[in-house]
Amino acid sequence: MMLTFEHSNNLSALDRTIINYIENNYEKVMYMRVRDLANETYTSPATVLRCVKKLGFANFPDFKAQLQLKKNQKREKLNPDLPFSFQKNFEKDLAAIGKLIEKADITYCLGLGNSQLMATYASNLLTTIGYRSFSTDPVLSSYSLNNKQHSASSIPDVCLIFSASGESHSIVQLAKELKGTTIVTISISSKAFNSLATYTDYHFNYNSAVERTPHNLDLSSQLPTVYFIETLIQFFIFF
């Protein structure tokens, strides 16, 4: 969640400390008293109240009401009435990888066939909102990803891997090679259990069927993947 305010030049260092805490713990703050928030931020109740007024609210209850509204809007955005669904903890897991991408130097987006189109779409959207992202063929990326040097203190890069079936040999092989490296791997497929999910750090799955013609052409709907990508982008824009 991102707080917006008009008079940012008037914010003190203590104000920014309070705002930073709220942005990272807003669901907890909704149930706090002024004194609770002051204790958590090592400030005073008076400082908290001044900060709330600088953000444009008359009092602390009004501010908490706005946090509740933001939470309700988030729930509506992440849980619309759709003909498919993701795993039970979709919202929580999405927030977790969103934070990883925010910190990462590079986010790689990989896939084959139609999934490569989805990978390119994800990479383009991440680049548009200011994140460093690349989309390439997973076979060509295997060597460069495996040989990317990381220091012990570096923040890990992220690799989003798109595969409807989760069984493509080259995709699974790449994930296997990346397992144990500092690159955080995240797979998106139509099955909860598949070979790809075995090797990735995070796995997102949806209940849409995989459809193939007798000639093995993939005609599976990409709507769940588009939903995943655009919901992830909303995480950065609205929260």
Automatic annotation (TrEMBL):
DNA-binding listed as a keyword: yes
Domain HTH rpiR-type: 1-74
Keywords: DNA-binding, Transcription, Transcription regulation
Entry-linked Gene3D superfamilies: Glucose-6-phosphate isomerase like protein, domain 1, Winged helix-like DNA-binding domain superfamily/Winged helix DNA-binding domain
Alphabetized CDD domains for the sequence: SIS_RpiR
Residue ranges annotated for the SIS domain, each copy included: 97-239
Residue spans crossing the bilayer: none
Superkingdom to which the source organism belongs: Bacteria
Listed InterPro entries: Homeodomain-like_sf (IPR009057), HTH_RpiR (IPR000281), RpiR-like (IPR047640), RpiR-like_SIS (IPR035472), SIS_dom (IPR001347), SIS_dom_sf (IPR046348), WH-like_DNA-bd_sf (IPR036388)
Record's keyword annotation contains DNA-binding: yes
Name recorded for this polypeptide: MurR/RpiR family transcriptional regulator
